[in-house]
Amino acid sequence: MSVPTPPLLPVLFVSHGSPLFAVEPGTTGPALHQWAGQLPALRGVVVMSPHWMAPAPAVMTNPAPATWHDFGGFPPALYQLQYPAPGSPALGAEVLALLQAAGMAAQEDAGRPLDHGAWVPLMHMFPQANVPVVEVALPAEWGPHEVYRMGAALQSLRGSGVLVIGSGSMTHNLREYFGGAREPAPYVLAFSRWIEAAITRRDWPALLDYRRQAPHAVRAHPSEDHFLPLFFALGAGGEDATAHYLSREVMHSVLAMDALALQSTI
Hints:
By secondary structure, the protein is α/β, with parallel strands linked by helices. It is built from 10 helices and 10 strands. The strands form 3 sheets. Strands 5-2-6-1-10-7 form a 6-stranded mixed β-sheet, sandwiched between helices. The chain has a two-stranded parallel sheet with strand order 3-4.
């Protein structure tokens, strides 16, 4: 009697916005909470955040990662928040082995805390902090192709109860963040919807070349760090992935909070 193959979990890309997203959820926070509530029981979460950049791929193996308030100048209430989710050295070792098997010189980090790119969106998704979390670092010198390959190396985790997440931002021009405007900036909408259209038609070459092809790409991302986790999610989702958008909210005029689930059958 054959054992049925468990269904593949979707992959998530989430824009974590500013740290204020922890206490100002907008419509994105509830959308993430509702979506996460429909998932089956999880063995763990593997998340890439641009707030952990390392010279080479690195994987958290900390069994009890601290909540790191890696930001300054925000209201005191933010610094009181804690997200005491456990780590998982065993899952971290699996991630490490998969990356190494794909030819990446990945290293473990047994002391890594959870930065806000991980714990802020996870607070909305799993407020009970009962799902083990493993962070992976964004290699500092890597671009879209390399980060896509990193995500692709972890596709098999989706069949064993692991949710793979790329946490970044659909747009992230902090030089314009404090301008005071509240209506979505036109360039933010133009860039975000171009990306959505390319994902919808599965135009991976155009996406990988977004810096040259997408409208206002350099203005939307003066540096690439907050956009690269999208390619981690796309790689883990697979070439046949279909996107389901959970949020298209824009906060503070220039922070597109797009969140999307990528589902594939392979």
